[in-house]
Amino acid sequence: MTVPNHFELLATSGAARTGRLTTPHGVVRTPAFMPVGTAGAMKGMHWREVRDAGADIVLGNTYHLMLRPGAERIAALGGLQRFTGWGGPMLTDSGGFQVMSLSELRKVTEKAVTFRSHIDGAKVELSPERSIEVQRLLGSDIAMQMDECVRLPAERADIERAMQLSLRWAERSKRAFEAAPDGYMLFGIVQGGDVPDLRHASAHGLTGIGFHGYAIGGLAVGEPQAVMLSMIEETAPALPSDRPRYLMGVGTPEDILEAVARGVDMFDCVMPTRNGRHGMAFTRFGQINLRNARHIDDPRPLDEESPWPAARSYARAYLHHLVRAGETLGAMLLSEINVAYYQELMQGIRDAVANGTFEDFRTKTRAGWARGDIAPR
């Protein structure tokens, strides 16, 4: 069966791409960074701020939402967009990664994963079919296939077993998804760890099944950046050029810039809000630690040229005070500043690709991070 294509590739600059992905709840400009709303909320931020920062799409966490408040309850309340008030496009993961990362009491079989809820210890079974059912109840614009992710480094035998199981689960996920309403999408997930031939085998198997888009999974799970980038170089060219490519769980601004240079279109990570809660700001000068005592008397804003008001309006001395005092406002301001910076970076990438100047943008952006924040004399 032919899988409809909702992605339009608009321009390229080297391997970097920019495009438009049309979903039932709006258009997503790519490359896109998806802020992570784990439990149906962006930690420390209002949805209005997320939208104003420039985000077209956000990520919801299937594992957490199916346990609390429950997928059926969210469906009865109108789906994630209405339940949360976000209203725009939303992608949900399959729940498989959290089963791996959060639960020590889990068992993986051909049929499903069984685990103990981290909330109340109840036994839960999550199969490819149930994962798709949960994501449809949530009302996800983009659902992800159920897969098994292996932390790196790992033995080849373990990586290959998980990759082959993920391919079989991809087939089951697609069959379960086939009754979805028009416009909704299902992405397959390439596994294969840090083994190039397994990555190729996974990509070949998934494209044979056919999906609306393709994700590169099983990276940013303990391997060095050089390994991650080499696996992207192996995988991205093996995926259909007319479909969106999503690098899951990545990452730092540098990771994103380098992955875009290798043909990736979509990203997600908790880093902007998590680091904000710990006193870290992402800027065009690189990352700035507001806990550092050097900011205690600094009247400058984080970046007087930033398009985001909070980055221009608050003195570093005040942000330092909020962070050191443990004031919630400090975490809130730094989280919104970080999300806005990520979106500013994505807009800069999109503009540069559209203008055919991505390599120049990449060089200048990396130079700004390398130069760092220059303290006043």
TrEMBL record:
Query: Which top EC class is named for this enzyme in its record?
Result: transferase
- What are the residue boundaries of the tRNA-guanine(15) transglycosylase-like domain, all occurrences included? 15-367
* Catalytic activity entry: 7-aminomethyl-7-carbaguanine + guanosine(34) in tRNA = 7-aminomethyl-7-carbaguanosine(34) in tRNA + guanine
GO process terms (BP): tRNA queuosine(34) biosynthetic process
Please indicate if the UniProt record lists Transferase as a keyword: yes
> Looking at the Swiss-Prot or TrEMBL record, what is one Pfam family this protein matches?
TGT
Enzyme Commission number(s) of this protein: 2.4.2.29
Q: Which residues bind substrate?
A: 93-97, 147, 191, 218
- Catalytic residues, per the record, are 93 (proton acceptor), 268 (nucleophile)
Please describe what this protein does: Catalyzes the base-exchange of a guanine (G) residue with the queuine precursor 7-aminomethyl-7-deazaguanine (PreQ1) at position 34 (anticodon wobble position) in tRNAs with GU(N) anticodons (tRNA-Asp, -Asn, -His and -Tyr). Catalysis occurs through a double-displacement mechanism. The nucleophile active site attacks the C1' of nucleotide 34 to detach the guanine base from the RNA, forming a covalent enzyme-RNA intermediate. The proton acceptor active site deprotonates the incoming PreQ1, allowing a nucleophilic attack on the C1' of the ribose to form the product.
Family the entry assigns:
Belongs to the queuine tRNA-ribosyltransferase family.
Query: What is the protein name given in its UniProt record?
Result: Queuine tRNA-ribosyltransferase
